[in-house]
Design brief:
about 375 residues, alpha/beta, 6-stranded mixed beta sheet, 5-stranded parallel beta sheet, 17 helices, globular
């Protein structure tokens, strides 16, 4: 078992703010393994099967009084009868207790938000991040090719059947009942289309015409994929320029392995590294940007900035992703800064030997890896 220490630390930090961690993540991302990393001696695992857990719902106070561990884990909490009542009882009456609730059902997640309020915080576990690769003893190139689900990442050879079986199971477990979809072919067709187009601007009409699926169905399936975090929708940043793109989002698949598989990139070529690195950077940003949304910026003539992270007041950080920072074209960034001059400029690359402060086309640019970006965020917050 590989311990994902940064996520364990995240959970411990969240418990300083609220007693309940609502742990989400797609199938196979490693939620159960992560929980085990908190220490088996601390944990009381609850079987949420309705037949076995009815007594908990009948008298939750009695159940919690009998707990002999400091952490109670409710896996698949949506199966627990009267789950929100049970969680509220634990949080309100047993202040020293810490609770983890996991659920793959989006409806349960929404209900938790309405019912539990400030008693809980969400932690979304993503695929294995860039900085976690040394713990798994794998290269970045293998992460590109296999993806970040631990089972796939640790395979000696990539197995195409894994990705197909995962998508079938994902529909059956996380989509069919929660969203009431019955046509798995249409859903999977759209999912594969998005993976093939991952990182590109998305138009509902074009997808509908290409796939011969109605616009309402495309929109419904897109909402389901976003709600389950199987895709990330990166929306355009705008507000000043008259020729800014304001409506067309970019849609990213949740994992590089699925993107490479859907595109038929077997084996990978060096030209594939740039787009896949952009996905890895986005996953890292999503894991560490709190309280604001990652966006992108694009001008009508296609000059763009990969990612925008809003900061304090008028400050916005502009982030460009480059496998080789020597190939960086500053045209988009330079135009962006004529409209939004406040904030830091970054070129994020995995090549540490090229890191440093650069002056490019009249702009001060920090060339760094993702950890360098995060380190500067911490310095800025302290300052």
């Amino acid at each position: 078992m590989v311990e994902r220490r940064s996520w364990i630390e995240r959970i411990e930090e969240v418990w300083e703010e609220a007693p309940i961690v609502w742990l989400s993540g797609v199938k196979g991302v490693g939620k159960t393994t992560l929980i085990q990393g908190l220490g088996a001696q601390r944990l009381l695992h609850v079987d949420c099967d309705p037949a076995r857990s009815a007594h908990i719902a009948a008298d939750p106070e009695l159940f919690f009084r009998a707990c002999d561990r400091p952490v109670v884990v409710f896996d698949d909490v949506h199966r627990l009868p009267d789950a929100m009542k049970v969680l509220k009882t634990g949080a309100d009456l047993f202040r020293e207790l810490r609770i983890i609730a996991t659920s793959s059902t989006v409806a349960a997640d929404g209900k938790a938000g309405d019912t539990l309020g400030d008693r809980k915080r969400r932690v979304h576990l993503g695929p294995v991040l860039w900085n976690e690769l040394p713990a798994f003893s794998v290269s970045l190139e293998k992460r590109f090719y296999h993806g970040g689900l631990p089972e796939a990442l640790t395979m000696k050879d990539r197995q195409g059947g894994f990705y197909r079986e995962w998508m079938d199971a994902f529909f059956d477990r996380d989509i069919r009942e929660p969203f009431g979809f019955r046509d798995s072919d249409k859903f999977t067709m759209l999912f594969e289309y998005l993976l093939k187009q991952s990182g590109e601007p998305f138009e509902t009409t074009r997808a509908s015409e290409t796939l011969r699926i109605s616009r309402p169905t495309v929109a419904e399936h897109l909402r389901a994929l976003e709600a389950t975090r199987a895709i990330t929708i990166v929306r355009p940043f705008h507000g000043r320029g008259q020729k800014e793109i304001i409506k067309m989002p970019r849609v990213y698949g949740f994992d590089t392995g699925f993107v490479a598989f859907a595109r038929g990139w077997d084996p990978l070529r060096t030209d594939d590294y740039g787009p896949l690195w952009e996905h890895v950077v986005l996953e890292y940003l999503e894991a560490h940007v709190r309280g604001s949304q990652v966006q992108y910026w694009r001008w009508a003539d296609d000059r763009k900035v990969d990612f925008i992270v809003p900061g304090a007041r008028d400050e916005v950080d502009a982030i460009e992703c480059e496998w080789d920072p020597d190939a960086f074209d500053p045209a988009g960034l330079k135009l962006f800064r004529t409209w939004y001059p406040e904030g830091e400029n970054y070129v994020i690359s995995p090549l540490p030997g090229l890191a440093g402060e650069k002056h490019i086309s009249g702009l001060d640019v920090h060339v760094c890896d993702p950890a360098g970006w995060l380190g500067r965020q911490g310095t800025a917050r302290k300052g």
